[in-house]
């Protein structure tokens, strides 16, 4: 695929055919990813760029939908999910803007004017109109378009100077007229026009142009033309031949060559291309980022593509260096000698010496002398042909500075397959350096997961990866991974020729730490107490003290963000502040024992209070927001749970959250009963939901042991819900009956609705359809009043199944689709899985097997992704139902057999009865009489234990079919009649799919009952 942004957004196939990208929002997403192809754009940034203040109800889901539609349009492999967002996985030259930048860069490396002009003409020919045409209202597009327009003008100036060298004055003078009218204050462009006019014999027009520019500069900016234009003016007055500025002779000797790189730069192709583009459009670019992230290496690689470069290493200067001290070092690197006259300051003399030169000045490691560098840069940039590329752990802070934060290398997501791991820049660097340290090492399917984990643990920081890979020879990948908890002892031994601050990970962080004020150090080390970041409120609460007032924390955080020591992300609930793992480990080591103990207590206190507040909002209209906030704080909540002083209270506050999110293992670990009756009841309920049975009436006794009325009602409801689904239905009915009475006595409307929804399910299973409908409708109404969307899903699920039994498949589809939408809004993925599979059942009942398989497969995928065996079972049984009805008996049996054993293990008779019926029908249709009889007999026993008349009827119908192929037509007819009476007792019609089985069996009975000659 090729992409165009130099004009209207366009996509072409490799053959040049246009590709349609439907929907405006999807086109905005593509345009945003094309701003930086190959680079990750965070999900938060994409949501902000796509929706702004008009956020959808579930931004994450809405973004996923837009990404899916874009993948369908341009190819699934081009839009890649990579934390913390997405990237467009195409080379830079697949986008016309990247091709444009590359052609411009190649032209600047050429010396022959003919070749320069040809390359630049090709570059300008890529433009089809205004950049990002059609996206003028998008802030990201305005910025990108402005940068490209600036780059276009620079290329035009280069193109004009190349053609001047070729003597193409007359034509060029005409071509530049319109551009100069559009950009009348652009001095380099105006200089090219004046030279073209003068060279074409139109000297009067050239002098008029100079006078016009002088007037505009004076009137609009209060400035005079620069020295280069003034000199050109004098040349024109004297009638001297025109020549381009870049060919003017300089008495200044060339700078020293760039330092050689001992190894190849890995994983930075996109970054190199982007920064090269930036230095073509901005005169001052600063690469910022954490120490060891690779700022210097990136700057050197970018600089190698430039014609004239001077590299100045500033790390050796003391922190009290002055402006003249910095200017002296820069002059020495440039080869400029101090003259005999000292009437002007050194920095001004340096700037004067640079006039007339086309030079990229690279200032490396500026962070410790930012003030004198900030004083020098404007004077250096007063020379029109000079550009500055700086590296620093924070901004230099001068006008016109363009910041570009060097990110860590991209790291694989947890659980990524080996093919994805090998595409990661961090893994590629690790593999290259490890192979150099330990010949023969390679990343394979066996060690890919461990290597990926190592790269994540060191945050994708190139220096840390290089230090880690050097240890492979003595530790191996597994040993290295185990020792990263003590990373500062392991990540040592950098090259002896490296600066001391880059030989160990600790030294890198020491350098940054020593540049901080005492207040900044206080906030940074206290941030280490958090897991996976914190909100501003949490930071102000826990990071204040020791002379830092809470009101000062925000400003200190901003300064730490500027120094690349703190990562800030913007969420729907406000900013979050996070430390990379290595910085967090360093900060934790700066905590004194007493301070650490106090912070741990304050941390557990804060998050226990937070969880208690959240629990009060999880059963009402703010459910979605508080689920999201609890998701975000999962790391901090888990850390707080390790404090035994807070665990019981915190666990109780989180049980409903764990239930809604399906985090059963976590709930079981945290609710270990000990002497807490409330936790004991919840723990038992979570065990039931995890597939463990209770002994006798243990659940009822646990309910009775809770003394607080509200806690007892909630515990009774939860145990009743769990036993209804996975244990003894009779015990479940008794518990729900008691819970409903308790909620009614307390006046708890939410509790009443919850109990009614479970009772509706119980009555539905028993075949009491009218009573089930009454309970479900009441439950839905009350949940609607309280604003609880989870509750609406539960009640709607029962109403959907009742509509299904009544044969009203359109109504059932509406209920299940609404449930799926509500569950998606809340990110309740197990519920979403079940609803998709329910919709699959509706399609199956209506004979649309293709649609049924698609929906069931969607449900299965979600269930597998979220480790939900119940959802996976429901989806795969649905796929088996479809396969069996289309005669694919082996496929159906392969799907059903594992789940039969699963249901038997849990003694889940409802599930077992259906599976046994399906397996029996498959055996019958293959004419396997004995097998069919055994399966249907076992299925009938399971169905009778459930008491569900529909399950019993299905088993009887299956047994009738088995008797038929066993040549027992009379018994088959009796069984079929019994099944018919059982179904009539429910008042529900026979579903079409099951009617076909019944009709087939009844036709077989009639056929076997006729005389032989008639059958013939």
Automatic annotation (TrEMBL):
Q: Which domain of life is it from?
A: Bacteria
* Classification via InterPro entries: AAA_22, BTAD, HTH_77, OmpR/PhoB-type_DNA-bd, P-loop_NTPase, Sig_transdc_resp-reg_C-effctor, TPR-like_helical_dom_sf, WH-like_DNA-bd_sf
Gene Ontology MF annotations: ATP hydrolysis activity; DNA binding
Residue ranges of the DNA-binding region? 1-90
Q: Which GO terms describe its biological process?
A: phosphorelay signal transduction system; regulation of DNA-templated transcription
Q: Which Pfam families match?
A: AAA_22, BTAD, HTH_77, Trans_reg_C
Q: List UniProt keywords, sorted A-Z.
A: DNA-binding
Q: Has UniProt tagged this entry with the keyword Oxidoreductase?
A: no
Provide the OmpR/PhoB-type domain boundaries. Answer: 1-90
Family (UniProt):
Belongs to the AfsR/DnrI/RedD regulatory family.
Q: What is this protein called?
A: Transcriptional regulator, winged helix family
Instruction: Give the species this sequence originates from.
Output: Kribbella flavida (strain DSM 17836 / JCM 10339 / NBRC 14399)
């Amino acid at each position: 695929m090729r992409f165009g942004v130099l004009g209207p957004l366009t996509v072409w196939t490799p053959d040049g055919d246009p590709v349609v990208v439907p929907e405006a929002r999807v086109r905005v997403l593509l345009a945003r990813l094309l701003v930086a192809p190959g680079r990750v754009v965070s999900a938060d940034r994409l949501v902000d760029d796509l929706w702004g203040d008009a956020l959808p109800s579930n931004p994450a889901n809405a973004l996923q939908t837009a990404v899916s539609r874009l993948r369908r349009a341009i190819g699934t492999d081009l839009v890649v999910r990579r934390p913390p967002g997405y990237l467009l996985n195409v080379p830079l030259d697949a986008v016309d803007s990247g091709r444009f930048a590359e052609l411009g860069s190649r032209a600047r490396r050429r010396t022959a004017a003919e070749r320069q002009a040809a390359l630049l003409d090709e570059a300008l020919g890529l433009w089809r109109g205004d950049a990002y045409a059609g996206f003028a209202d998008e802030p990201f597009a305005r910025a990108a378009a402005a940068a490209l327009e600036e780059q276009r003008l620079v290329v035009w100036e280069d193109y004009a100077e190349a053609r001047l060298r070729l003597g193409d004055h007359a034509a060029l003078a005409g071509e530049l007229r319109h551009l100069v009218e559009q950009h009348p204050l652009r001095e380099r462009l105006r200089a090219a026009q004046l030279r073209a006019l003068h060279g074409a014999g139109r000297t009067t027009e050239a002098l008029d142009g100079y006078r016009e520019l002088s007037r505009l500069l004076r009137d609009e900016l209060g400035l005079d033309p620069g020295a280069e234009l003034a000199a050109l003016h004098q040349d024109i007055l004297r009638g001297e031949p025109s020549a381009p500025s870049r060919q003017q002779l300089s008495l200044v000797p060339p700078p020293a060559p760039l330092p050689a790189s001992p190894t190849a730069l890995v994983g930075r192709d996109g970054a190199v291309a982007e920064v090269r583009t930036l230095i073509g459009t901005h005169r001052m670019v600063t690469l910022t980022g954490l120490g060891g992230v690779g700022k210097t290496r990136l700057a050197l690689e970018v600089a190698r593509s430039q014609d004239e470069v001077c590299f100045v290493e500033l790390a050796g200067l003391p922190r009290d260096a002055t402006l003249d001290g910095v200017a002296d070092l820069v002059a020495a690197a440039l080869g400029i000698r101090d003259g005999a006259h000292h009437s002007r300051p050194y920095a001004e003399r340096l700037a004067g010496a640079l006039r007339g030169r086309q030079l990229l000045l690279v200032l490396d490691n500026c962070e410790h002398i930012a003030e004198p560098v900030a004083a020098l840069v404007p004077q250096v940039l007063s020379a029109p042909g000079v550009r500055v590329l700086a590296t620093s752990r924070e901004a230099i802070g001068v006008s016109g500075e363009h910041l570009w934060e060097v990110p860590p290398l991209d790291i694989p997501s947890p659980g990524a397959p080996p093919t994805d791991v090998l595409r990661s820049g961090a893994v590629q660097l690790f593999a290259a350096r490890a192979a150099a340290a330990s010949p023969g090492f390679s990343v394979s399917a066996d060690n890919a997961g461990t290597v990926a984990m190592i790269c994540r643990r060191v945050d994708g920081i190139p220096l840390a990866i290089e230090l880690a890979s050097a240890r492979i020879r003595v530790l191996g990948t597994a040993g290295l991974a185990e020792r990263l908890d003590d990373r500062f002892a392991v990540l040592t031994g950098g090259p002896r020729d490296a600066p001391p601050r880059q030989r160990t990970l600790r030294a890198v962080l020491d350098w940054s730490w020593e540049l901080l004020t005492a207040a900044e150090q206080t906030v940074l080390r206290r941030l280490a107490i958090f897991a996976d970041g914190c909100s501003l409120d949490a930071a102000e609460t826990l990071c204040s003290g020791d002379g830092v007032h809470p009101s000062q924390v925000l400003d200190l955080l901003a300064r730490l963000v500027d120094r690349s020591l703190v990562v800030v992300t913007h969420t729907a609930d406000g900013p979050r502040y996070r430390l990379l793992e290595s910085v967090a480990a360093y900060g934790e080591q700066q905590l004194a024992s007493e301070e650490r103990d106090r912070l741990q207590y304050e941390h557990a206190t804060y998050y226990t209070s937070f969880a208690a507040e959240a629990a009060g909002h999880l059963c009402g209209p703010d459910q979605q927001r508080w689920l999201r906030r609890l998701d975000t704080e999962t790391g901090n909540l888990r850390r707080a749970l390790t404090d035994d002083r807070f665990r019981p209270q915190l666990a109780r506050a989180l049980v409903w959250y764990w239930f809604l999110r399906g985090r059963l293992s976590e709930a079981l670990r945290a609710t270990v009963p000990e002497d807490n009756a409330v936790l004991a009841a919840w723990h038992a309920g979570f065990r039931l939901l995890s597939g463990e049975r209770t002994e006798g009436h243990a659940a009822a006794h646990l309910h009775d042991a809770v003394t607080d009325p509200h806690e007892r009602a909630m515990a009774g409801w939860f145990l009743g819900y769990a036993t209804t689904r996975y244990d003894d239905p009779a015990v479940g009915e008794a518990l729900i009956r008691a819970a409903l009475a308790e909620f009614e006595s307390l006046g708890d409307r939410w509790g009443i609705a919850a109990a009614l929804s479970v009772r509706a399910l119980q009555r539905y299973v028993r075949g009491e359809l009218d009573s089930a409908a009454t309970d479900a409708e009441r439950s839905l109404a009350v949940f609607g009043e309280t604003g609880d969307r989870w509750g609406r899903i539960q009640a709607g699920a029962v109403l959907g199944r009742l509509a299904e039994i009544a044969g009203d498949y359109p109504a059932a589809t509406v209920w299940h689709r609404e449930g799926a939408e509500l569950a998606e809004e809340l990110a309740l993925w197990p519920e979403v899985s079940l609803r998709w599979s329910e919709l699959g059942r509706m399609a199956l009942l209506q004979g649309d097997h293709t649609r049924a398989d698609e929906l069931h497969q969607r449900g299965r995928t979600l269930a597998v992704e979220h480790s939900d065996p119940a959802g996976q079972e429901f989806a795969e049984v649905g796929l088996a139902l479809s396969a069996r009805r289309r005669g694919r008996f082996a496929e159906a049996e392969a799907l059903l057999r594992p789940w039969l054993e699963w249901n038997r293990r849990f003694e889940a008779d409802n599930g077992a009865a259906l599976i046994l019926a399906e397996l029996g029908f498959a055996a019958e249709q293959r004419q396997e009489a004995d097998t069919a009889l055994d399966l249907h007999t076992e299925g009938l026993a399971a169905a009778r234990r459930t008491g569900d008349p529909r399950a019993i009827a299905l088993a009887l119908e299956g047994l009738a079919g088995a008797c038929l192929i066993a040549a027992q037509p009379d018994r088959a007819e009796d069984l079929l009649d019994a099944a018919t009476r059982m179904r009539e007792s429910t008042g529900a019609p026979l579903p079409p799919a099951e009617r076909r089985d019944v009709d087939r069996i009844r036709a077989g009975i009639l056929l076997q009952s006729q005389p032989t000659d008639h059958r013939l």
